């Protein structure tokens, strides 16, 4: 069987055994440019067998680029990468022609497992053959031990059962009689995952592996990846998956000192604790430095005026004053000089001011109702044919409501009804007097907009707040929205909503397309906000930590 793409991770030829049953994945001094843009700079990363490293960082920081480099699909402009020869990489698309039968995809994965089994048998045959010198016997024994070790690590003799368990665990046991093109996008992703798990490569690279997976399949995948004996490197926006799987986190975001590529031991939760401690230390360092700068500026400006030689001498020390004046003046000059030098040093290399964490402004409605139960929004017997049926729902001021349910159950439709974008065929929707509603949609439809984030914020009279939210990078403030990524455009709209502080804020899948740091800040901001907030989300991390009210839609 042949494949369309010559750079596919699954090959029909069995892997060539290396000197060890399992070898580490090592990147040293890796730098990558795309044109004039430097994406990665001098990164070092070593992942040993049995370790599972999660790669995190802001959107566009180079997570997928790093995975492609580690997989050998692209070459670094500087540095070197060594990897296990048996490596599997989860592409965004299946690396098989559309007409490939699903059974052949699984057979291809099993072929590599069978090759390991055959290598054990071949080494055993050589070892069992009569004759040979002591050196040849020693070499045969070493070859057999290596082949056996690799086969045991890959669980060769459990492969057939692993196929059944993996297909069922990922929810695709029913697709064996189909071809690749007869499967949905989500099913193809699951099939690709299943082939890699069956194959048990020495190194496994995963780019957003839980996309298209439900909670049960994600839980199964986490357990299967934890059981992988080799190297695992993954990038994911699924914080629960990172927390369940990773033994360390590799953060590509630059530190305040400009270093990128920092390794944190432990789970994602451990990483969050470490980052919070770093953030607190950063704030303390910034504040202390600003205090020192203020003191030095004051000292430089006032010291010379306040020293003794600047005052008139009294009668009892007039003779001494003349003799000591030059010495005092020299001491003053040195103090002023030293203070100015220290001030110049600090001002030329100041600690960057920490960006302000995301926080929702207090709406007047939420504050006015802090001690009461004023209704912000009420729905009765609402029907949107084929999309939503809801008997009743009342939202009092300050309510935090999480809307959950399977795809197609009506979550987005409900939010659009609340936002007055969709008029139900039956039923009533009543908004409290003076209530303003703002909504963050899944798709913001600004891909052709030539206006910049700064222009949009000025349009709503919030231009002075744009940089403070930490949602838009300085280099993007004046770029047309059509040149920004989907995630960047959603950040702009989210910032506008935060600035306007509507009484009812509707957020449809708010953690899609944003960084993990911002997703964490968003969840914390929702928890302490005073206004009424409704969130529809599949985000398992957000759902597991939700402390407000939950509405589960069952669909029709």
Topology at a glance:
Layout: E1 25-34, E2 37-47, E3 52-56, H1 63-71, E4 78-82, E5 87-90, H2 102-128, H3 134-153, H4 159-169, H5 185-199, E6 203-207, H6 215-226, E7 231-235, H7 239-245, E8 248-251, E9 262-265, H8 268-306, H9 318-348, H10 364-368, E10 375-384, E11 388-396, E12 400-404, H11 411-418, E13 426-431, E14 437-440, H12 453-459, H13 486-500, E15 504-508, H14 516-528, E16 532-536, H15 540-544, E17 549-552
Parallel strand pairs: 3-7, 3-8, 5-6, 6-7, 12-16, 12-17, 14-15, 15-16
Antiparallel strand pairs: 1-2, 1-4, 8-9, 10-11, 10-13
State the shape: flat
Number of separate strands: 17
* Major β-sheet annotation: 6 strands, mixed
> What is the count of DSSP helices, taking H or I runs of 4+ residues?
15
Oligomer: single chain
Q: In order across it, which strands form the biggest sheet?
A: 5-6-7-3-8-9
Sheet-strand content, in percent, reads 15-25%
Low-pLDDT runs: 1-20
CATH topology of the largest domain: Rossmann fold
- Separation, N- and C-terminal Cα atoms: 44 Å
In angstroms, what is the radius of gyration?
31 Å
CATH class of the largest domain, named Alpha Beta
CATH homologous superfamily assignment of the largest domain? P-loop containing nucleotide triphosphate hydrolases
Q: Helix proportion of residues, in percent?
A: 40-55%
